[in-house]
Amino acid sequence: MFNAAHIIFYSTDAEADRVFIRDVLGFAGVDAGSGWLIFKLPPAEIAVHPTEGVSKHEFYLMCEDIEKTMTELSAKGVTISEPISNQRWGRLASIKLPSGADLPLYQPLHPTAYDLEG
């Protein structure tokens, strides 16, 4: 039924964030016209968590070794907005995009759905 997911980031400096995603994070992409870049992402998974508050969406880039990832990003001059924190289910951190928005990173400590075949 579905063959992919399309995620949209709204940014106060979209051009700078696009260049950062392409040149610093290294995501390949296509020009959808007039320099409008759309990036290929790694495999993805979706989780649904209960909430007592307003429903919302969150986006995390997943990595296998968050310490190594943070070291590599720091070496490229990326600003770390939240240092690594350990949770029972995974390790979290966050980096700053050029627009000033935070981009969370996540190293799961549980089985992941993206390893499933099909």
Distance between the termini: 12 Å
The stretches of 5 or more residues where confidence is low (pLDDT under 50) are none
Report mean pLDDT, rounded to a whole number: 93
Helical proportion?
10-25%
- CA-atom Rg in angstroms: 15 Å
Task: Write out the strand line-up for the largest beta sheet, numbering strands in chain order.
Answer: 3-6-5-4
Helix/strand order: HEEEHEEE
What percentage of amino acids are in beta strands?
15-25%
DSSP summary, beta strand count: 6
Provide an overview of this structure.
The protein has 118 residues and is α+β, with helices and mostly antiparallel strands. The chain is built from two helices and six strands, in the order H-E-E-E-H-E-E-E. The chain has helices at 14-24, 66-75; strands at 29-31, 37-39, 61-62, 80-86, 90-96, 102-108. A four-stranded mixed β-sheet has the order 3-6-5-4, with helices on one face. A hairpin with a 5-residue loop joins strand 5 (90-96) and strand 6 (102-108). It is globular. The chain starts with 13 loop residues before the first helix and ends in a 10-residue tail after the last strand. The mean pLDDT is 93.
